[in-house]
Amino acid sequence: MDNDMDSSNYLIKGHKVPTKEKTYFGIGVLANTIIVGVFTLYLLDYYINIVKIRYDLFIIANIIYLIWNTLNDIVFGYYGDRTRTKLGRRMPYIRYGAPFFALAFIIFWFPFPGSEPGNLQSGQIIKFIQLVFAYIFFDTTLTLVILSFVALPPEMTESTKERTSISLYRTIFTIIGGATTLIVPIIMSFGINAFRIFVIFLGIFCMSSYLIVSYGVKERKNLY
Question: Would you report the helix, strand and coil content of the chain in percent, each value rounded to 5?
Answer without folding.
Answer: 80, 0, 20
